Structures
1.
Amino acid sequence: MASNQPGGGPTRNFNLPLRPSNPAGQPSQLPRRKLVDLFGRAGFRWAQGPNILCRDERDKRVVQAFVAAGIALAKPAVETAMADMFRAARQMAEQCDLQPPTTTPQFIGHVLATSPLVGHLRESIGIELFCAIREARLDWKANPTYPFDRPAPSPLAQAVDEFDAAAGSRISALELELFGWAGAWAEEEDEAAPETVEELQRQHKQELQQQQQQEEQEREQEQQQQQQDGEAFRATVEEQQRRERILLQLIQNYRDQLPEEAMAPDAEMEEGEVEEGEVEEDEDGDIEMEDV
């Protein structure tokens, strides 16, 4: 409702309730932001096309993960979060976490586990995102073009450079290629990304439940294994003790069967008896060796 006041146009009556932006029962649409629009182009050469990753669905899932993790859909917030991820990767690489038998995909998975995206983004998509950011920076540095990263590289570009200086030589392109050949890049080809906040929350809840069930199964298997190991150890100890008892009984039986003379101490030598190897003198003073 509006009211006319002297000397002015209609004014809004602020006592009336405002119309809700999301009426009850209506799904809340996820933000329609493209992943490529959340990254700066200065100092990076992103892949040609509307997507950063191999498919649009995977780009959508990254954007949804940002929303679920509480990262604002703005370049400064997204680039800060990604720069923190590459700084964590550099620290982990300096601590020799990128050494055989750890593969490159496994290492990046460990990095993602420390980022805000953990629990909100599937590991294979996170690995592809990590590689896409790094490759975009390396491609631009190989042939710098406009827009340039002047007067200084962005925090994300600097974080990628520092990681690459510390561990770039240990990143195996072959391992990543094999990881992609194994189907990691296409594991969700038939699964569309959710379009609403409710769908995203429901999917996230299901994934958490599945993860909890898997962890519970792993704990049960570990407990069963520990129980089996304990039973096997007790059986080994009991078998060892049984063998020791049998051996002691055999020794005792053997001793019981020996004659008493064999068990008695050696009788004293008769007077004049010469021990083996002992010498004595004859009447002429010659020394004779007692025969053995």
2.
Amino acid sequence: MGDDFDGEQKGLIKRLVNFCMIDDGKSTRICAIVYKLFTA
């Protein structure tokens, strides 16, 4: 279960990063907060 969840989490982080890049930094603060939550 742990490995599967970890892989899922990494996928979400990748999607989040891609979204932040596309968004042109408008929601960079939100992305940073969410990223911290995922990597905490």
